[in-house]
Amino acid sequence: MYPFSYTKVSNTREAVNAGRNGGRYIAGGTTLVDLMRETVEHPETLVDISDLPLREVRVTERGGLRIGALVSMAETAVHSKVRTLFPVISQALELSASAQLRNMATIGGNIMQRTRCTYFRDVSAACNKREPGSGCAALQGVNRTHAILGTSDDCVATHPSDVAVAFAALEAQVHLLGPDGERHVPFADFLLRPGSTPQREQALRRGELITAVEIPALPRPLKSGYLKVRDRQSYEFALTSAAVALHVRGGVIRNAYVAAGGVGTVPWKLPAVEEALVGERPSDRLWAEAAGRAAGGARPLQHNRFKVELLQRTVERQLRTVGDSK
After folding, report:
1. Distance CA 324, CA 118 (A)
2. What is the pLDDT of residue 55?
């Protein structure tokens, strides 16, 4: 681990100032500390924001949900309003990591976590995300767990977060505070596809701090849920996953919100699937036909071609689970 300095801040003004001067924010530290220990990351200054007042979960005036950036994954998962309004969020969190990590890790940190690509974490391997211009070892290497959607010639790494898939499906917004004040970024625009700059992963400006994630007030009644397919039952990242929320009224699907994980360089919203569902009556045939659109534009690699069919099957299964639930 490289030498670094450490400072703890007591308010958001101090945090923004420290961040503007090059400090890296840390709260739970469940990702950043690991990367520092592996010498993948070597920040000069850590800014501890764990004392900031960003730990509230509340229903907004319009009936959405605002989750403070420093609320832990565990606290969010069991919160009564989260479970009642958006069970897909609770389920995604409970299928993430271990109980110990969920107790430490924060919502803001979770969506900021970096890829679990083994080549990114192996400092002897070529990785454009870690060292721009060095190449991407995964392209010709072992790429079974890598992305098939949103990839580029410079990077094929997946985003590892489960709850980010739920946030993408629910069309959340990320609240930011920085030197220029507050701003809100749609979740779809917050996490960036690699393109030719895979080292830039979020739409953050220098010194900006995540303060909250807000889910809008979606039509009710709303049924939702999360499915994660992985090599083993626990403590494993997704091969594929699906976050689904459906608003059904009068026996017809009025609104559909669907996203996939484990297959994209970012949590992958599935508008073609959503469009196939809206205005239709739930049926096994509908679930299969809509899910058949899930892998549109996929670019599978040598070892992950199976993900095309697995993604379609995962989406179909979760559409049926949510759509047929009472």
Report:
1. 39
2. 97
Q: What is the pLDDT of residues 255-301, one digit of tens each?
A: 999 999 999 999 999 999 999 999 999 999 999 999 999 999 999 99
- Euclidean distance between CA atoms 133 and 110, whole angstroms: 27
Half-sphere exposure (Cβ direction) of 106: Cα atoms closer than 13 Å: 27
Task: Tell whether pTM > 0.90.
Answer: yes
The band of 233, judged by pLDDT with boundaries at 50, 70 and 90, is: confident
Give the helix/strand (H/E) hosting 268: strand 268-269
Contact present, 134 and 198 (Cβ < 8 Å): no
Q: Name beta bridge partners: 183.
A: 176
Structure tokens at 247: 């608003």
DSSP 271-292: HHHHHHHTT----HHHHHHHHT
Q: Which of 28, 48, 166, 168 is nearest to 98 (CA)?
A: 28
List all residues 6 or more positions away from 60 whose beta carbon is below 8 Å from its beta carbon. 66, 214, 217
Ordered by where they begin, the domains of the chain are: 57-112+170-215 (3.30.465.10)
